[in-house]
Queue: 2 jobs
Job 1
Amino acid sequence: MQELFRPRDLSEALAILAARSEVRPAAGCTDLFPATAAPALQGAHIDLTALEELSGISRTPEGFRVGAATTWREAIEADLPPAFEMLKEAAREVGSPQIQNAGTIGGNLCNASPAADGVPCLLALDAQVELASAEGRRMLPLGKFITGPRQTALGPGELLVAVHVPGEAARGASRFLKLGARRYLVISIAMVAVRLVVEEGRVASAAVAVGACSPVARRLEAVEAALVGAEATPALAARVRAADVAAALSPIDDVRADAGYRLEAAAVLVRRAVSELVTHAGECAA
Amino acid sequence: MAQVSMTVNGKPVTGEVEGRTLLVDFLRNGLGLTGTHVGCDTSQCGACVVHVDGRAVKSCTMLALEAEGAEVKTIEGMANPDGSLSVIQQAFQDHHGLQCGFCTPGMVMSAAALLAENPKPTEAEIRHYLDGNLCRCTGYHNIVKAILAASGQDVSIAAE
């Protein structure tokens, strides 16, 4: 008999996981079901969508807290500063509207697909993840949480409960661009998230992340360094050097694209995102 | 087995389900509401779209127990109280927005969700919104026309 737990209270959920480490979390099921090779889910699961503490986006004294069971649709509808626009753009491209209504941001992170659309956006927002277990809580930078394809730093009995974005990273304007074999309902070949803070006509800070081009989505520090301090004019995009993009990434050849094409696409998308942001430079102001 | 209760098309219902029972299977096998179809079973095709608390979701990708306490609406709840077709259903008939009809329940439910959120969508917005509903008779063109008509807009603006 397959078991399903649906706790209303986080401490109850953590107690179940502490006692039964084989119980798999479910938070929207949009990845879980398609990955189930059997006619029905096997084993015990715990549905996290009834947990109040995991739902919705709120402001905190330090910045923003995104509950792990926040759906893509809730992210699209949330009142957030322009720095989050890339996350909303990614949310609008996840699956279809019905998937956006069910799939969750925490599920996207824990599923840890190299092509997870939420990851580059949250990396470019300097996100930290809040993990909870019956033993207590800890925070980790998102870049240290996802450790490989389908692998995370979650320990036994531990749940991702929220994603935190510091106020300092909630500045500037942002853009998400994704390349797929078709426009919709598609797994990314490459996607980029770019956030720029422009002060007095110059780039004060830059966050550039690329997904689907390495085992885990990555920030591109060399590309960021080449942008900081430069004038926010249409010439800015030319500062994105293909060599800097390629040096940070390690794409694979697969049915969707070969590695060379992915690198080319990543560089083009980063330049395009930078260019679109400086064209609307007023929005990049801190 | 666990007990699940929800409101389906305005009526309170209760049933016994296993943890793994999908919402679509509860609707079809538990309640006999077979208007909601299962096409791909992998949340791609959209034949199983229903509304849960006003949101369009794929009922093959949701457990029945996740809908505990929710308001669910299926294609069987779309007609007017007197049994006549709703505006959207009538528009699908008038504009031949179906061929084999298998995808139609999902198309109608997605169209209703779209028009609830965007009462006068452009043709492009309609096509974008239907990205999660597949029609393998390639009947999209008339489906788009039907939705334009249901929103009270001129269907001649749809590209031929």
Job 2
Amino acid sequence: MRLQLLRIILPVALFAGLIWLWEWSVAYWEIKPFVLPPPSAILAVFETDGPSLLASAWTTLGTTLAAFVLAVISGILLATLFASSRIAEAALSPYAVTLQVTPVVAIAPLIIVWVGLDKAWLAVLILAWIVAFFPVLASATAGLKAVDPNLRDLFRLYHASFWQTFRRLMIPSSLPYLLSGIKTAGGLALVGAVVAEFAAASGNTNGLAWRILEAGNRLQIAKMFAALMLLALMGVILYALLSFIEWLLLHRWHGDRRNT
Amino acid sequence: MTHDLRLDRLAKTYPNGTAALQELSAEIEAGAFVSLLGPSGCGKSTVLRLIAGLELPSRGSVEWPRGRAALGFIFQEPTLMAWASAAKNVALPLELGGVAEADAGQRARAALDKVGLAGFADALPRELSGGMRMRVSIARALAAEPAVLLMDEPFAALDELTRGKLNDDLLGLWTERRFTGIFVTHSVFEAVYLSQRILILSGRPGHLVADIRNPAPYPREAGYRTSPAFNATARDILSVLEDVST
């Protein structure tokens, strides 16, 4: 119990200490606020620009979640197709891989031109989806292929239908793989959304990345930090939430995975 | 309930060119306990997979003169679903066969009772020992009351004591249910202890080299393992194996 308490107290104390050191250093060495603003100035930004920052955060979060959900659904569907047909996998996987290895920043301008700047949100959604989609596909495909061949034989022996085999064998046995892919996809959806917003570089997207660009151009460094903090917070919450879901679904038959 | 089984010049060559089995012919009467004995790589497991219909023969056929029997299969590994409780694992063949969930659950618990796992119905496989997992696997194979039970070296990975205990339990279940037992093993002593008849396979591709009857009556108790009758049968088999390996 004491150890667990320490695991919470120590990081919090370290964080508080670092913030204090930051505040003190800025004052002591008289660092210019447009180089490194003190924490108090960043906090002040939330008072003046809070609503607009939160609105932007909301936009980015919306794009992230939508891209994430689309990535999970499409990844699982395509992985199922790959697992049930080798021909489909041979024909389609090169495109999936090509899409994955091409840097999203390089594709972004093209997608934005195709979709049109007036629908920049759609371009951002597509780009975030491209980034988040691949880990789901890869992990679900690996999971579906890792099913114990003896168990597969057992299902065949008892004349299980495709649907019975899928629901009772394929899904549960690929779940650990799939969930780790989904966890990665959550973080990547956020990365994808932000990168796409940067690439669009337009007030139309109105996300946090745009706030960062805008504040950077006006040398409002404190505001940049504030936006950055919101992004980091969002990423951490997303990751924690997905880890918790993973734990919820797996801890019973895989042992406690909270600490891994 | 009684189904004879006839293997007619059964042969299997895998698509990659490996010849696993060469012309195996044998008749197995309903209710018999037969062992397929031989060194690894002689196609014993292939025979089981052909009987189960998990593979198709390259030549020859598996015939069921009185209709195809309901089958149970016990693999070398317990082959349990790690995410499901012992009872859920045992209920699987029943549920796949369309038995209602509640009914299947009850029969699964009864089957677990039979193999001495009464208190472990809700345990997950990872909470059980190797021997207990094998018992779950046996319970699952028997839950659907198959007429033919195919066993592919089921106890090979277990320690000697657990293995002996499971052999006894298996014979107990067989005496009670009288399914046709086809047991693959590479242990001469296990084959003698369990079976009425021992088919010895050898070579690559495997073929039948001897068909030995073991007349010792059932129930066979622990004393049988050290009796002269046991030794005589084991000696017969060992001499056949020595002949083919030289």
